[in-house]
Structure formats: structure tokens, C-alpha cells
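# step 3/5: fold
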Amino acid sequence: MSAAGLAVMDALQDRGFLEHVATVGQHLREGLARLAHRYGHGELRGQGLFYGLTLSDDSADAVIHAALHEGLLLNAPQANCLRFTPALTVSKTNIDEMLLRLARAFSRVRTAQLQCRKGIAV
């Protein structure tokens, strides 16, 4: 086995590792649920640190573009779904920063949608 493989196995066997993943995963779940509720989006699926968020419309591309403007890389497997897959070693601080940037992205998209409905050029 390579040194990298051994390092991964050592990390996985560390007692605190799985507890860390569970704790940080719950923090991510709660934060995503709050944002989904605040912006009127749908179901949050997944567990641990891997989640999918169903959007209320087909705005995933717009959210991805707005998130990129905020320095956040997202994945959208469908036009109405975002996928979140942070590293297993992510910290609560990193999650908080991601949630803040995602909130700003959602806000940008909502503002652009409202302006389009009012006939204001975006």
C-alpha cells in the first residue's frame, strides 16, 4: 500500500474522525435547512456531509453563477437541484463561510428574478 493510502486509513481509523464528520455534517444540514426555508426552496436530502437541495424552480445555473461570483464552487446535477460535497475534513468555520456565501448567492438570484418580473434590465 502507498504512503498516501496508509495515511487515509490512519485518518479513517482515528476515533475523532467519524464524530467530526457527524458533528460538522449536522451543522451543515441545519444551515442548509435554514437557508432553504428562508428562500422558499424545497427538500434537503442526504446525510453526513453529502447533501442535495431541491430548488423551488429551475434556477440552479443562476445560483451556481451567483455563487461563483461569491467565490463558492457548487455542483448542480439537475436544473432544480444543488449538490453539496465538502471535504470530510471541513470545519464548522468553513461551513459557516459557505452558508454565508450561499445566502448571498440566493439573494442575488432572487433580486435578479424580481427585477426581471418588473421589467428591469439585469
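# step 4/5: annotate
The chain has four helices and four strands.
# step 5/5: archive (pending)
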